[in-house]
Design goal:
Length: 256
């Protein structure tokens, strides 16, 4: 970022769900700015491969496998990483066509997978690491959320509610810890072409073009699109930005 000083030398970061996609892109940016980055993923092999990719780019990265929906696994992860200065709550799986079900047709047991990963895990991982940031007088908490939690999407009622809850949590936490040098923000994403979403579009020719028409920029997002903003918010350059939800969605929803 020419003209903006982004220097994370001496800082440590944890990016959850960073084995691929947005998390990996953010991990690369943070490491490229000098941070030591813990790359978390549920799959140990994927965490190791992602850390290797970050290191190949000249960054300092270490893998840490953990299930962020399991409090015991999160506690074990914290024992491995120790305190961190930057936490990016990125772990999550967006709904795809086959999982879009009207709320009235769902069962109670269908809700838990969405709320555990997209809301409960954000609370638990943040609770595990934020007190250390407060004690040291510097910290950054960034949570990746979704347009489904900002405007509402048919078939994504529980997913959207979980993401909306993560936004509300972040706003409240920002108020609590701001005077201790800790900022808390969210980035809300539109549809990104990677992972299960990319697999769905590949298996259904023509659907991606139809979906992309709703985006003023004429395309779906990539995992790299939100990474520059994430870097800014996780640095000293973002020290007077907190309690906000920033939209990176190709203009799909209006921010005005």
């Amino acid at each position: 970022m020419r003209g903006i000083e982004i220097d994370l030398d001496g800082r440590s970061a944890l990016v959850t769900g960073a084995g691929r996609g947005v998390g990996l892109a953010i991990a690369r940016r943070l490491a490229g700015a000098g941070a030591r980055v813990w790359v978390n993923d549920l799959d140990p092999g994927r965490a190791e491969e992602a850390a290797r990719l970050v290191a190949e780019g000249g960054g300092d990265a270490l893998p840490v496998a953990a299930d962020v929906t399991d409090p015991g696994s999160v506690a074990t992860m914290a024992g491995v990483t120790g305190p961190v200065d930057i936490l990016v709550n990125n772990a999550g799986v967006p709904p795809v066509e086959k999982s879009l079900t009207p709320f009235s047709e769902t069962r109670r047991e269908d809700w838990a997978p969405w709320t555990r990963l997209n809301f409960d895990a954000v609370l638990d991982v943040s609770h595990t690491y934020v007190q250390g940031m407060v004690e040291r007088g510097w910290g950054r908490v960034l949570t990746m959320v979704s347009d489904a939690g900002r405007k509402g999407e048919a078939g994504q009622v529980v997913y959207g509610a979980a993401k909306a809850g993560a936004m509300g949590f972040s706003r409240g936490l920002a108020v609590e810890v701001g005077r201790r040098g800790v900022t808390v923000n969210c980035i809300a994403l539109g549809a990104l072409r990677h992972g299960a979403v990319a697999d769905f579009f590949d298996a259904n020719p023509g659907v991606e073009e139809k979906v992309a028409r709703a985006y003023p920029l004429g395309r779906l997002g990539t995992p790299e699109d939100p990474a520059p903003l994430a870097l800014l918010l996780c640095s000293d350059a973002g020290s007077w930005i907190t309690g906000q939800v920033f939209v990176v969605d190709g203009g799909f929803t209006s921010g005005f």
